[in-house]
Amino acid sequence: MSEQTTSAENPGDGLERLLEVEARIDERLATCRAEADGILRAVQAELAAREEQFERELDVEREQRVASRSAERAADIQDERDRAARQAKRLRAVPPERIEALARELIERLLADGSEPAR
After folding, report:
1. Under a CB-based contact definition with an 8 Å cutoff, are residues 49 and 43 in contact?
2. Of 31, 51, 32, the residue nearest 43 (C-alpha)
3. CB neighbour list of residue 13: distance below 8 Å, 6 or more residues apart
4. Other C-beta atoms within 10 Å of 7: how many?
5. pTM, two decimal places
6. How many CA atoms lie within 13 A of 104 on its CB side?
7. How far, in Å, CA of 5 to CA of 23, rounded?
8. pLDDT of 50-97, one tens digit each?
9. Would you say 117 and 110 are in contact if contact means Cβ atoms under 8 Å apart?
């Protein structure tokens, strides 16, 4: 009963305790907010770092694809050049007599069909 009597005798003590508790809660709240802000900044920094890493990896992947496509195109061009060179070599190997014979045969076919070569 002495506690109730003390509280009843001095109501300011209860108010003072309440104000002290409120001050401690405010301090704790400020600390928690600062910690939360720190965590948020750390998460944002981590996210930014991961995004930058992703962009770098994406750039490397793009560069590799472009290089691969360029190499494939260069290989295709070289294949076409090689094929054309082989065809040219085969055509150069045809004797002039054979070319003349083929030309005469073509002319005879055209004349037999009644067609004339375009002039």
Report:
1. no
2. 51
3. 6, 7
4. 13
5. 0.48
6. 6
7. 26
8. 999 999 999 999 999 999 999 999 999 999 999 999 999 999 999 999
9. yes
